[in-house]
Design goal:
Blueprint lengths: L6 H28 L6 H13 L1 H19 L3 H5 L2 H23 L6 H33 L2 H10 L17 H10 L2
C-alpha cells in the first residue's frame, strides 16, 4: 500500500469501522435473543433501515466503481479479489431478507427462532467476512493498481454523499439509533 491511502479508500475504511460497530450491536442482540430475550425492534429496524439506505446505496456503489476501474487496469486482480459485484448483490439480498424477517416477526408471524437466528448469523458472518476481505485484499490491491487520475475520477463521482448516521450531522431518522450506539460504546 501507499504511505497515504486514497481519499476514497479512507472513507470506505471509516464506513467499515462504523458498520463493524453496528454488526457488534446486532450480534449482542442476537446473543440476548438466543438466551431467550425479546428482540429490540426499534434497534433492529434502525440498523436495517440504515443498512438499506447507506451501505447498499452509497458505500457499495463506491466500492464497485473502484473495483471496475481496478479490474480494467489489472485484469488479474479479479482472481485475487473475487467478484465484488456479486458479493455486494448477495449482501444486499441478505439485508432485505433480514429486514423482511423482522417485519414478519413484528407482525406476530410464526417464525421459528432457529430460522431467524440463522438469518441473523448468516447476515453477520457474511458482512464480517466481506469487510475483512476488502480490508486485507481489495483495498491494498486497488491502491496499487489505480493511478492518481483514477482516484480523482472516483472522488469526483462520490457526489458528496454524507453518511446519515456517522457523517457528523446525524439525520433525524437515525438519532435514536445513534444514541443507542453511543450508549453501547461498541
Amino acid at each position: 500500500m501507499t504511505d497515504r491511502m486514497p481519499k476514497a479508500i479512507e472513507q470506505l475504511q471509516i464506513d467499515h469501522r462504523n458498520m463493524t460497530r453496528l454488526l457488534a450491536l446486532l450480534r449482542r442482540e442476537l446473543d440476548a435473543y438466543r438466551s431467550g430475550g425479546a428482540l429490540d425492534f426499534d434497534l433492529l429496524n434502525g440498523i436495517m433501515d440504515y443498512t438499506l439506505n447507506y451501505p447498499d446505496l452509497c458505500h457499495h456503489p463506491a466500492e464497485n466503481l473502484i473495483y471496475e476501474r481496478m479490474v480494467a487496469r489489472d485484469p488479474q486482480a479479479k482472481s485475487t479479489v473475487g467478484d465484488l459485484l456479486k458479493e455486494h448483490a448477495h449482501l444486499a439480498e441478505l439485508t432485505r431478507k433480514l429486514a423482511a424477517a423482522l417485519q414478519n416477526i413484528a407482525r406476530d408471524s410464526e417464525i421459528p427462532r432457529s430460522w431467524f437466528e440463522s438469518i441473523v448469523e448468516d447476515y453477520l458472518s457474511s458482512n464480517e467476512r466481506h469487510i475483512a476481505g476488502e480490508e486485507k485484499i481489495f483495498f491494498p490491491r486497488a491502491a496499487l493498481a489505480l493511478r492518481p487520475e483514477d482516484w480523482a475520477a472516483i472522488d469526483a463521482s462520490a457526489g458528496g454523499k454524507v453518511d446519515p448516521l456517522f457523517g457528523g450531522k446525524v439525520a433525524k431518522d437515525y438519532r435514536a439509533l445513534y444514541e443507542r450506539i453511543m450508549r453501547s460504546a461498541v
